[in-house]
Every structure is written in structure tokens, then in C-alpha cells.
Amino acid sequence: MLELFGITKRYDGITAVDALSLRIEPGGIFGLLGPNGAGKTTTIRMIMGVIEPDEGEVRVFGEPFSERIKDSIGYLPEERGLYRKMKILDHLVFLGEIKGVPARVARARGRKWLERLDLGGWADKTVESLSKGMQQKVQFIATVLHEPKLVLLDEPFTGLDPINTEIFKEIIEELQQDGRAVVLSTHVMEQVEKLCKRICLINKGRKILEGSLADIKMQFGQNVVTLRFSGNPAHLERHPGVEHVGTFGQELTVTLAAGTDTNLFLRHALEGGKVEKFEIGEMSLHDIFIAKVKAEGGEVHDEAAQGR
After folding, report:
1. For residue 39, which of 64, 75, 15 has the smallest C-alpha distance?
2. What is the pLDDT of residue 37?
3. pLDDT per position as a tens digit, 260-298
4. What is the rounded distance in angstroms from the CA atom of residue 89 to the CA atom of residue 101?
5. Can you give the three-state secondary structure of 143-169, one letter per residue?
6. 237, 231, 267: which is closest to 254 by C-alpha?
7. Taking residues 157-185, what's their average pLDDT?
8. Residues 82-118: pLDDT tens digits?
């Protein structure tokens, strides 16, 4: 469905994307992950032909990108691009026609999507009357209205509340079940942890990890403890088997070195405070990313930590 062969893009001597190669198959959700500034948006713009790579090649549906195949792609950019004075349904019809959908069909599909996303009563309102989250819904509809084979979503959950985020996730899963390929680009890694079968983690324009999410998690093992702890986290770090302590809401995730006895670690934790929860499980994608960047001697961008 989509292949990247060593694509590279530089701006004023800075390499935004560095020799990136990927292969994306139909009927799956592929996560292009990394902190803000990692090169995700630049990569998607090269896929869409918005900018040309300095080196390498992009092939879509087995051939170089062209205007002819552009109508088979749905693209939700990170920056919003709706015409503020247009009525919402008219806007969707206009964008559908640009993609080759007859006006009558586009209008029927648009109404159906507006109803599904709880915007049915807003069809004759102008775009500028909508909240940011509602505008995001309209732009998402415009992305899928022409029923593309390949869907590129750049930070699709921006501006959405938890309920609408879940609705978007349901729709994305339906797209891949229908045989379409979905590329989901985000810096908020836990949002796609349950959606994506395959992922690519990039940092500073370079690919640092790629493959099946299940295989990656197996590779990094399951020596991770999640706990709710009333004491000082610094106490946990003093245990010789602790490699990393991270915060996730009201809980802590502790990565233990291979061979560390979890019972002894629990005893150590109890010496420093009250333990209300103690759960042994797999390493989160966020923590895998942090560990991988640090292992390569790189710095973790602030956005990676904020992406929790």
C-alpha cells in the first residue's frame, strides 16, 4: 500500500527526516510515533507530495506519488484547513467533489457522518460557529468521505474530549477492518497502544524502533511493576534492581533489571510507604521509547514525557 525508500529531508542544514524506510500493508493500523519535532509531519507531507524528499523515494499503491492516485488517499493534516464562512454540509460536499465524489453522493455521505459524530443539527451552520473539537470532527469526515484506500491521520485526537476520542478510535478500527491502510501519527503513545499492530518510533528524524507491537513488547520483557505508592518515589530508586521510575497519573511504573526479585522489591517499597497497588506487567510503549532513546545515548524531548 505504501513504501518509503530511504527518504531524507533537510531544512537549512538540519535533517528533519533521516533515511527513513517503511513498508505499510493494507488492512492495518500503522503507528508513526515520536515526540513533537521528531519528523512525523514532514514524513507525511513527503508521502502526500506536499514537499519533495531530498533523497529517497515514496511509492503509493506500488507507484510513485501522482495527482492521479491522490484521490485514493485521505489526509488529515495537523493544521486545520476549513473555510470558516462555509456551511458545514456544503463544505463537505465541496471537498467530496474535489475528490471525485458526485455532489448527491457526497451530500448523503456527509449527512450520515454528521449524524454519527453528533453534528446532525449543525449541517447548515458555518464552520466558524463550531468549537475546535467540532471542527476536528468535520475535518475528519472530509478525510474519509471519499472512502480512500489509504488514510493518513496526523494527530487526529487533538481538541477532542475522551468520549469523542473513543468514537474516533472506533471509526479508525472500522477503516482497517474494511481493508484500508491507516497511518496514525501521534506523540501521545498510549492512545495508539491498543490500536496499532505495527509501529515505527522516530526521534530527531531517525527511526529507532520498528516492528510488530507484540514482538517489541516481548523483546523488552515484562519486568515492569505498576504501583500506587504513598511514599517518596526516590525511596524506590534506591533499590539496586530499579532501572527507571516513571509517573503515570496517580501511579508509578517501575522498570526492574532482568533477574530482579519482585517480592524483594515489594518488601523494599513497603519499608518506604504504603503500597495500595502492586501489579507486574508489560512495559508501556512510552517507557519503551524512553528506554530506547536513552540506550542510544540520545536526549528525550520534553514532549515525549508530556505525551503520557
Report:
1. 15
2. 84
3. 899 999 999 999 999 999 988 777 787 787 777 776 655
4. 14
5. HHCCCCCEEEEECCCCCCCHHHHHHHH
6. 237
7. 92
8. 899 999 999 999 999 999 999 999 999 999 999 999 9
Name, in order, each residue with C-beta under 8 angstroms of 171's C-beta and a sequence gap of 6 or more. Answer: 140, 144
Phi and psi, residue 197, nearest 5°: -90, -35
Amino acid identity for residue 64 in this structure: P
- Report d(CA 303, CA 288) in Å as an integer: 15
For the chain, give the DSSP string: -EEEEEEEEEETTEEEEEEEEEEE-SS-EEEEE--TTSSHHHHHHHHTTSS--SEEEEEETTEE--HHHHTTEEEE-SS----TTSBHHHHHHHHHHHTT--HHHHHHHHHHHHHHTT-GGGTTSBGGGS-HHHHHHHHHHHHHTT--SEEEEESTTTT--HHHHHHHHHHHHHHHHTT-EEEEEES-GGGTTTT-SEEEEEETTEEEEEEEHHHHHHHT-S-EEEEEESS-HHHHHTSTTEEEEEEETTEEEEEE-TT--HHHHHHHHHHHS-EEEEEEEPPPHHHHHHHHHHHTTPPPPHHHHHT-
C-beta neighbour count of 91 within 10 angstroms: 22
Take residue 289 and report the three cell numbers written for it. Answer: 521509547
Bridge-based pairing of strands 150-154 and 73-76 is parallel
Over range 208-228, report the average pLDDT. 84
Residue 191: what are its φ and ψ, rounded to 5°? -65, -30
